[in-house]
Amino acid sequence: MTRLTRRSLLGLGAAGAAALLAGCSTPGTTSANSGPVIRPAAAGQKITLTYWAWLKDLQKVADVWNATHPDVQVEAVWIPGGNSGGYQKLYSALAAGGGPDIAQVELRSVPEFMLVNGLIDLRRYGADEFADRYDPTLWSQVSFVDGIYAIPQDSGPMALYYRPDLFEKVGATAPATWDEWAAVGTELAKTGAQIDAFNFADPSWFAAIAGQAGASWLRVDGDRWLIDMTDDATLKTARFFDRAIDSGILQTGYGAFSSGWFAAAARDRIAGCASASWGDALLQGVSGGEGKWRVAPLPRWGSSGYGSSALGGSTAAVLANSRHPREALEFAVWMTTSPEGIDAMIRNSGIGWSPARDDIGSARTKPSAWFGGQNYNEEVFLPASREQNPDWSWWPITQQSLNILADGFRKKPSGLTLVDAVAQSEKNIMRAFRDKGLSIEKARS
């Protein structure tokens, strides 16, 4: 479990905290968790919960709940994706003393909402009683030493989507290791196909693969943060992809699932894609691709590291101004762990991997015609969901940190290596922490 408290998030005294929060579009410096516990609604009292999210057709999911819970109705409101404007709407609403009861917040953004007093500690409302329903790695990413600040909503265990017919042209099958992946990529390049794409503008993919290798970039030590982005696992990953990019086996002109990528994939110029479970729906946008793609486990780093990693993932978080946190918690748990809630989320909203410990959703237990009849969810993604790095955790300025890393990666075409970009980014991220008044030091090996 991440040993993180709100004090650890700040790592400074009250005066510094106030100055920091004032510069973060925060709803205020008073925590909703410092007052008395809010009592549940009285028996027979009718209430309406609001849920702001960028999931499509979320109201259809809420309506399944509404049909059997006449006293606790849920109204879904669509907002743009988090960093595309949704988070700003949430911060603005919180600052004005309002906002929804529940909001979709990415796993990596939970610490940022904690930092601005934006979330209810659900442990105060009985969240611990539901812990055994969830994947323990996901539960650990919303559970901190002094509370539980969201309910896992979905995640993105990773695997390798690939074209067996293109691989067979070079005498290859799905690679078991990253070294084998590079060797196959070299042969594919000779035929005019590339094994994957590397998007300089979105380093979250690189972070996931480094995490698979065993990296854990930031952790809490008392009231300060320790950072280590030049550990062996990260540098091994950076050196590997420096070579892969330099050898031409990766497409760097566009990222996966972009318009350029779809056009290239339709012309048999993209032979593989290491991505998350939610990529299956996006992949089906490849013209003429039905029946041609399969799913294999993510290549491993030899005998070290983990069998998979995670890319993306969201939570249902109860926001600070909710007057009905216990009811909001109960709805979030129903939506993410009950068979009817999970199936409704998959059917209507196309969520990523279910966070429930023992239920992947009935639709995901069946073979897929688009993937040539492969039952890839049970065969590949279910094991992948259980083979992730449990020590990876997010930090309070995650998006800014990824932006810093992206700035470094964009210099790769002009000569800066990924190895050097990571090292420079580490220093710049430390500076960004300190500029916000956060305490951070370089971890000592």
Question: Which descriptors would you attach to this protein?
Answer:
445 residues, alpha/beta, D-Maltodextrin-Binding Protein, domain 2, 2 domains, seven-stranded mixed β-sheet, three-stranded mixed β-sheet, 38% helix, globular
Per-chain topology:
Elements: H1 6-10, H2 14-22, E1 47-53, H3 58-66, E2 72-78, H4 86-95, E3 102-106, H5 110-115, H6 136-142, E4 143-144, E5 147-148, E6 151-162, H7 164-169, H8 178-190, E7 196-197, H9 204-213, E8 218-221, E9 224-227, H10 232-246, E10 250-251, H11 259-266, E11 272-276, H12 279-283, E12 294-297, E13 310-318, H13 325-337, H14 339-349, H15 376-385, H16 398-409, H17 418-435, E14 440-442
Parallel strand pairs: 1-2, 1-3, 7-10, 9-14
Antiparallel strand pairs: 3-13, 4-5, 6-11, 6-12, 6-13, 8-9
Helix pairs in contact: 3-14, 9-10, 13-14, 16-17
Structural write-up:
The protein is an alpha/beta fold. It folds into two domains: about 5-155 and about 310-360, Periplasmic binding protein-like II (D-Maltodextrin-Binding Protein, domain 2), CATH 3.40.190.10; about 160-310 and about 390-440, 3-Layer(aba) Sandwich (D-Maltodextrin-Binding Protein, domain 2). About 40% of the residues lie in helices and about 15% in strands. It contains 17 helices and 14 strands. It has helices at about 5-10, 15-20, 60-65, 85-95, 110-115, 135-140, 165-170, 180-190, 205-215, 230-245, 260-265, 280-285, 325-335, 340-350, 375-385, 400-410, 420-435, and strands at about 45-55, 70-80, 100-105, 145, 145-150, 150-160, 195, 220, 225, 250, 270-275, 295, 310-320, 440. The strands form four sheets. Strands 1, 2, 3, 6, 11, 12 and 13 form a seven-stranded mixed beta sheet that branches. Strands 8-9-14 form a three-stranded mixed beta sheet. β1, α3 (about 60-65) and β2 (about 70-80) form a beta-alpha-beta unit. α9 (about 205-215) crosses α10. The protein is globular, with a radius of gyration of 22 Å. It starts with 5 loop residues before the first helix and ends with a strand. About 50% of the residues are buried. The model is unreliable at about 10-25 (pLDDT under 50).
